[in-house]
């Protein structure tokens, strides 16, 4: 019996970290599906626990400035992590681009073939995320500007607080179509959506930063290391993101 107990203890030491920690991270809504898969794989492999708060990048950023106890921030842009670095609210060496997002125009009950759909289709409402809070909303307004359709469609805009709410507007029929993240759609839905050419909007480069609150948190550091690993990047790519991992500290 003592020998069996010793063998079990040895095996546990081999598969579990020396000390399991808990980390709380803030994540932009567009990355929810990918993050859920990343967290599941990370927790299984590491033994650490991850708690996630989802929301628009703008609102999460405001919460961080007001002292919210997040260890890391997965933004849907680069500007907010930039500001956190400049404000010395981050840990040096722990900021990088984890994903490059793709914008699509999606209709629940129709196939959107391109910008001609916007010009030629009679629709009541088109959903987009609030461009002041959500980078995907900013990309949507840039797209409409580039197509010369801003004024023609503005009266029919319905704005979501974040990209998750924007998706729900379309999914529930409260909007005929909407600009959402490619990552939010399953393969069947993606096949009927128009993938917006990247040239029509600024790149949706999404940066993560380790915050000062997370300094010394082993789970937070391990999570970011996993995200930029080959396994983590593979998960991110499966959700429709390009995942050129690029250091962003300056």
- Outline the biggest β-sheet: 6 strands, mixed
Number of domains: 2
Low-confidence stretches: 1-17
CATH level 3 topology of the largest domain: D-Maltodextrin-Binding Protein, domain 2
Structural class of the secondary structure composition?
alpha/beta
Structure notes:
- With 250 residues, the chain is an alpha/beta fold.
- It starts with a helix and ends with a strand.
- It contains 11 helices and 11 strands.
- The chain folds into 2 domains: 2-100 and 205-247, Periplasmic binding protein-like II (D-Maltodextrin-Binding Protein, domain 2, 3-Layer(aba) Sandwich); 103-195, Periplasmic binding protein-like II (D-Maltodextrin-Binding Protein, domain 2).
- Strand 1, helix 2 (32-46) and strand 2 (49-55) form a beta-alpha-beta unit.
- 41% of the residues lie in helices and 23% in strands.
- Helix 2 (32-46) crosses helix 10.
- The model is unreliable at 1-17 (pLDDT under 50).
- It is elongated.
Could you give the topology of this structure?
Blueprint: H1 2-15, E1 22-28, H2 32-46, E2 49-55, H3 57-65, E3 72-74, H4 79-86, E4 90-101, E5 103-106, H5 115-120, E6 126-129, H6 135-147, H7 150-153, E7 157-160, H8 163-171, E8 177-181, H9 187-191, E9 194-195, E10 204-211, H10 218-227, H11 230-238, E11 246-247
Parallel strand pairs: 1-2, 1-3, 6-7, 6-8
Antiparallel strand pairs: 3-10, 4-10, 4-11, 5-8, 5-9
Helix pairs in contact: 2-10, 2-11
Short note summarizing the structure:
The chain has helices at 2-15, 32-46, 57-65, 79-86, 115-120, 135-147, 150-153, 163-171, 187-191, 218-227, 230-238; strands at residues 22-28, 49-55, 72-74, 90-101, 103-106, 126-129, 157-160, 177-181, 194-195, 204-211, 246-247. By secondary structure, the chain is of the alpha/beta class.
